[in-house]
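wait is this the right file?? whatever heres the structure
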C-alpha cells in the first residue's frame, strides 16, 4: 500500500475512534456506567486498527493448546488464568506479559519464565482487569491479536460475563468444539448470538482423532454437523476439522485453519473497519437496554396503574383502544352537554313552523270580521222601535258569528295539530309521561269576546283595515298557543335534563377512568419516545462513523 493510502486509512480509523469517543461521552451523560467503557475500548482498538481474533468454546475443546500450537510457543497454560475479565490477549511485538489491575496499575512479567507466577498473582480475580501477552516471531504482528476467552460452559458467572464482554472487541470468532460435544445446545445458542451480531464465525471441530470410522464415515459426520447448525438457521463462515494429537490424521484441516488465520490478518483493515462499526451499533443497543433497565422501575410503576383501573369491555393495556374509547366518550359527553339546549331549540322551531303554517282566517272569517267591526262603530243602530235592544242583540249575534268562525278554523287548522305535536315531542327523547299527555289533551285556548275587542284599533275602517284586523286576531291566537306550547316544551326539557344528568353521571365515571388510563399510556409513551430519542441521537453520531470509507 502506498504511503499516502496508509495515511488516509490511519485518518479514517482516527475519525472512527473519535466518533466512538463521542458516543461514549453521550452514554456516560445518560448515566450508563458500563457501556461507555466498552465503547472507549473499541475506540482504542480502532485507533490502532487492531484485528482481534477471539477463540471461544468449551474448556475441554483445547483452545489454549490450539493457540499455543498456532503460535509455535507455549504461552498459555492449559488452565485459564483466573482474572475478573478472564480474557487473555496475545499479540506480536516486544516480548512482555502485562497484567492490568484495579489497584496496582500495570504489572509486567516475563512470558517465557513467569506465566505461572502471573497465575498465582491473579488468583484474586477481583483485582485484575485483563492480561495481555506480546511475543515476537509468531504469525501475529503488533496490529493483530488472538483473544483466549473462558469456556462458555463455565459454571462461573464471571467467566460467562468475561466472554460476552470481550465480544465487542472481536473482529472474527473461532468457535472450538470437542468432537463429542458438537451438538450441545450451548454451542448453537452461543454461535447464533455471534452471527446475530454480524460477527464472522468459523467453527473448529477439534479432536477428530476420536472418530471411529466404522460406526459412521467421516463425510456423513461432517454432513450431520452442517445440518445441525443449519437447523438452527446458523450459517458459519467456514468449518474446520482438526486434530492436534494426530497431526497426520487424513481429515485434519489444521493447516487450512492456520492459512485462514493468515489470510484474515492480511485483510485486517477491511475486517476491522467493518467490525468496529457493527460493534459500535451493537453497543448502542446495549446502552439502550441499560437505559431501559434504569427506567424499568418507573415503567413498572406506571404499568401497575393500568391494572388498578378496569373499564368494562376494554383492554386497558391497549393504548390505541383506550384512546379510541376516550375520544368516543368525550364526543358522547359533548353531545350530552348540548342535548337539552339543542332539543329546546329543535322543539321551538317545530312549534314555530306549525304556527306559521296554520291558516286561521278565510273569506268567511273576513266577512264575519267586517260585520263585527261595523257593529262596533259609534252610531251603529238597528231599527227605530226598541232600537237599543235590537242593536245589542245584533252586536251579540255578529260577535258570536266571528267567534264561531274562528273556533272552527282554529279547531281544524291549529288545535288538533298543536296537540299532536306536543304529544310527539317527548317521544322523540324516549320520555313517557301519561300525566303530560293528559294535560296536553285537556288544553283549551279560549276564544272570547275580549280577544275580539282587544284587537280593535281606532281609525277609519277600510277593507285593508279589516284584513289587518283578521291578521291581528290570528296572531293573537297563535301567540297564546305559543305561550302554552313553550310551557309544554319546558316540561319536556326539564325531564330531558334529568335524563341527561343521569346519563352524564355514568359517562363521567367512565370518562374519569379512561382519562386516567390515557394519562398512564401517555407516560409510558413518553418513556418509549425518550428511549427512541436516545437511540436516534446515538445513531446520528454513529452515522458519522458509517460515512467513513
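ok assuming it is, sequence goes like this
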Amino acid at each position: 500500500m502506498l504511503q499516502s493510502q496508509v495515511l488516509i486509512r490511519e485518518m479514517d480509523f482516527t475519525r472512527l475512534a473519535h466518533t466512538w469517543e463521542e458516543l461514549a461521552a453521550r452514554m456516560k451523560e445518560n448515566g450508563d456506567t458500563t457501556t461507555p467503557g466498552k465503547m472507549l475500548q473499541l475506540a482504542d482498538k480502532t485507533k490502532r486498527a487492531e484485528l482481534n481474533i477471539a477463540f471461544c468454546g468449551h474448556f475441554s475443546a483445547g483452545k489454549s493448546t490450539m493457540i499455543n500450537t498456532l503460535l509455535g510457543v507455549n504461552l498459555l497454560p492449559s488452565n485459564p488464568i483466573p482474572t475478573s475479565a478472564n480474557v487473555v490477549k496475545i499479540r506480536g511485538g516486544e516480548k512482555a506479559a502485562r497484567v492490568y489491575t484495579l489497584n496496582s496499575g500495570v504489572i509486567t512479567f516475563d512470558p517465557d519464565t513467569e506465566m505461572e507466577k502471573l497465575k498465582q498473582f491473579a488468583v484474586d480475580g477481583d483485582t485484575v482487569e485483563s492480561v495481555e501477552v506480546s511475543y515476537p516471531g509468531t504469525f501475529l504482528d503488533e496490529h493483530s491479536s488472538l483473544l483466549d476467552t473462558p469456556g462458555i460452559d463455565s459454571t462461573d458467572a464471571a467467566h460467562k460475563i468475561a466472554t460476552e464482554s470481550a465480544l465487542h472487541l472481536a473482529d472474527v470468532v473461532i468457535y472450538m468444539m470437542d468432537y463429542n460435544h458438537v451438538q450441545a445446545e450451548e454451542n448453537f445458542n452461543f454461535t447464533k448470538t455471534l452471527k446475530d451480531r454480524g460477527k464472522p464465525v468459523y467453527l473448529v471441530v477439534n479432536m477428530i482423532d476420536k472418530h471411529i470410522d466404522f460406526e459412521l464415515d467421516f463425510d456423513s459426520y461432517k454432513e450431520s454437523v452442517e445440518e445441525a447448525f443449519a437447523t438452527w438457521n446458523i450459517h458459519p463462515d467456514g468449518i474446520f476439522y482438526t486434530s492436534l494429537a494426530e497431526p497426520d490424521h487424513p481429515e485434519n484441516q489444521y493447516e487450512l485453519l492456520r492459512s485462514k488465520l493468515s489470510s484474515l490478518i492480511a485483510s485486517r483493515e477491511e475486517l476491522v473497519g467493518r467490525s468496529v462499526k457493527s460493534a459500535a451499533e451493537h453497543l448502542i443497543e446495549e446502552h439502550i437496554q441499560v437505559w431501559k433497565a434504569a427506567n424499568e422501575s418507573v415503567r413498572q410503576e406506571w404499568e401497575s396503574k393500568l391494572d388498578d383501573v378496569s373499564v368494562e369491555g376494554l383492554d386497558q393495556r391497549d393504548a390505541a383502544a383506550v384512546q379510541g374509547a376516550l375520544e368516543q366518550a368525550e364526543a358522547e359527553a359533548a353531545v350530552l352537554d348540548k342535548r337539552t339546549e339543542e332539543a329546546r331549540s329543535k322543539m321551538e322551531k317545530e312549534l314555530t313552523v306549525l304556527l306559521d303554517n296554520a291558516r286561521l282566517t278565510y273569506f268567511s272569517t273576513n266577512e264575519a270580521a267586517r260585520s263585527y267591526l261595523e257593529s262596533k262603530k259609534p252610531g251603529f243602530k238597528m231599527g227605530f222601535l226598541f232600537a237599543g235592544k235590537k242593536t245589542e242583540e245584533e252586536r251579540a249575534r255578529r260577535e258570536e258569528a266571528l267567534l264561531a268562525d274562528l273556533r272552527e278554523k282554529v279547531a281544524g287548522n291549529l288545535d288538533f295539530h298543536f296537540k299532536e305535536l306536543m304529544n310527539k315531542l317527548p317521544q322523540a327523547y324516549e320520555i313517557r309521561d301519561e300525566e303530560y299527555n293528559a294535560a296536553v289533551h285537556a288544553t283549551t285556548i279560549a276564544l272570547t269576546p275580549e280577544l275580539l275587542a282587544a284587537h280593535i284599533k281606532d281609525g277609519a275602517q277600510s277593507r285593508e283595515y279589516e284584513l289587518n284586523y283578521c291578521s291581528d286576531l290570528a296572531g293573537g291566537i297563535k301567540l297564546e298557543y305559543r305561550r302554552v306550547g313553550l310551557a309544554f316544551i319546558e316540561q319536556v326539557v326539564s325531564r330531558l335534563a334529568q335524563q341527561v344528568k343521569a346519563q352524564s353521571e355514568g359517562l363521567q365515571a367512565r370518562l374519569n377512568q379512561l382519562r386516567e388510563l390515557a394519562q398512564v399510556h401517555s407516560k409510558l409513551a413518553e418513556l418509549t419516545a425518550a428511549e427512541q430519542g436516545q437511540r436516534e441521537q446515538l445513531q446520528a453520531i454513529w452515522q458519522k462513523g458509517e460515512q467513513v470509507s
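Residues 23 and 538 are 6 Å apart (CA to CA). so i think its the right one actually
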